[in-house]
Amino acid sequence: MNLQMAIPSALHQLASLIWIGGMFFAHFAVRPTLAGTLDPEPRLRVALGVFQRFFPWVWAAIVLLWLSGLWIFLAILGGKAALYVHAMMGLALVMSLIFVGLYALPFRRMRSAVAAGEWLRAAAAFRWIRGLMLINLTLGLVTVLIAAGGPFLIPA
Ligand code: HEM
Asked: What is the whole-number distance in angstroms between the Cα of residue 33 and the centre of ligand 1?
């Protein structure tokens, strides 16, 4: 392993850790705590605040994942890689598109609904965000398993 591989590889790991670890924490720690302790109105306000603070990091992580991944794939591997790398890219593409859709639709809807005090609309948007984040969390964990275990199963 040389520096040319070490830098993008480290950035790649950092980005996936921030995105997937953040979703894991949101789903398994924040969500059940909010559901068990707060009434719907403050719960939706806190949930929105959590999303507003976490999502800029997700954007940064997605950009970093693609830049570092493409850097390794194109500049180091010369555009040729084993099946598990293509699986990683495919899953990452689906995850990225889900996040863009989640941000553009239910997240923006939830933001405007909370600002207007329309709690039913905010709750419906929140359910969509929660469901889409769970799908992305599952895909993200599968991607890590494939990416980390792939090299030992399928030779590059
Ligand atoms: C959520 C998305 C992603 C996750 C969780 C993920 C995770 C990983 C992991 C765990 C590794 C192995 C680390 C290592 O050997 O140092 C890896 C390597 C790699 N990833 Fe990703 N990755 C993601 C997205 C992407 C994307 C979008 C690309 C796009 C081009 C990509 C391209 C690569 C390449 C080329 C390698 C190196 C493979 C090799 O050494 O043969 N990854 N990734």
From this structure: 32
Q: Is 148 in the pocket of ligand 1 (CB under 6 A)?
A: yes
> Which residues span the domain enclosing 55?
3-153
Integer Cα distance of 152 and 65 in angstroms: 22
- Reply yes or no on whether the pLDDT at 41 is more than 90: yes
Q: What is the pLDDT of residues 111-154, one digit of tens each?
A: 999 999 999 999 999 999 999 999 999 999 999 999 999 888 76
Angle 66-106-93 (CA atoms, 0-180°, nearest 5)?
20
* Length of the chain counted residue by residue: 156
Sign of CA dihedral 105, 64, 51, 111: negative
Place of tokens 């954007």: 59
Split into its structural domains, the chain has a count of: 1
pLDDT of residue 155: 58
First to last CA, the chain: 15
